[in-house]
Amino acid sequence: LDSYEKQLTNWQHSEINHDFNLKGYLYHFRVWGGLADENLLKTFDFLFRFRYQGLILSIILLSILKIIVSRYPGYRLLFNLVFIGGLSMLAEMIILLWYQINFGNLYSALALIFGLFMLGLAVGAWWSLNGFLRYFSFSQLYLAYFFLLMAMLLIIGLPNWQPVVLWRFALLYKWILIPLLVFLDGLFAGSFFAHTTREYYHLKPGSSPGITYGVDLVGGVLASIITSILLVPFFGLAGITGIAIGLVLVFWLFEWK
């Protein structure tokens, strides 16, 4: 951390955020230090000490639940949609937080990122019905998400190990790589949503029209809360990305035929 601060001080680049408080937050994850309630602080300290055990237990429980719902085609589709809705929101939050920390609170750029995610959703849904994405199976979409997350891990993780990479290619990161990741996140999420909606209402034609949309939102809400409150301070941005990669592989194995 001291080495990073020294390099940051010596490196002059108009695009890089020099607010070291944000950098320190990213590296130290001191999110619970400001809690006034002692009992609540003890609870989070307990969760932090056993975070790896909790993570393993959560993955096991999620896998068991996946096995159970896979016996029922309708619930299997909805469960996949909850997962993808949460995964797409998790990826967007990781990218946004990393972007803000490294480039500052640039509202015009953040608006572009939000817009690209929504554009990706729209294009993905359209292409899943009228374009090449309509030929993708669920297992192939999971595999596409796997490669997207691997690219995320490389792009956001490499500067943590070697900061000069970000500083030398700041414009490339700011205006091409990060926006591209957000767009692809929306693209795959939109395609998955359209695929699931089509199959679900073919399977259950009398169901409520908004059920898949509601289930997708539930996944997004749960992921937003869990990511911001637990995963970021417990595992860091690169760590969360690695966890997401593992979960995608688990779901891909269940869908692979």
Task: Describe how the helices and strands are arranged.
Blueprint (H helix, E strand, L loop, with lengths): L1 H9 L9 H9 L9 H12 L1 H19 L3 H31 L3 H24 L7 H24 L2 H5 L1 H34 L7 H45 L2
Helix pairs in contact: 4-10, 5-9, 5-10, 6-9, 7-9, 7-10
Give the % helix: over 70%
How much of the sequence is in beta strands?
Answer: under 5%
Distance between the termini: 46 Å
Instruction: Spell out the helices and strands N to C.
Output: HHHHHHHHHH
Low-confidence regions: none
What's the number of extended β-strand segments?
0
Mean pLDDT across the residues is 83
Counting DSSP H or I runs of 4 or more residues, the number of helices is 10
User: In terms of structural class, how would the helical and strand content be classed?
Assistant: mainly alpha
* Whole-angstrom Rg: 20 Å
Largest sheet: none
Q: What coarse outline follows from CA principal-axis ratios?
A: globular
Mind explaining what this structure looks like?
It is a single chain. This protein is mostly helical and 257 residues long. Helices cover 82% and strands 0% of the residues. The chain has helices at residues 2-10, 20-28, 38-49, 51-69, 73-103, 107-130, 138-161, 164-168, 170-203, 211-255. The radius of gyration is 20 Å and the shape is globular. The N and C termini lie far apart (46 Å).
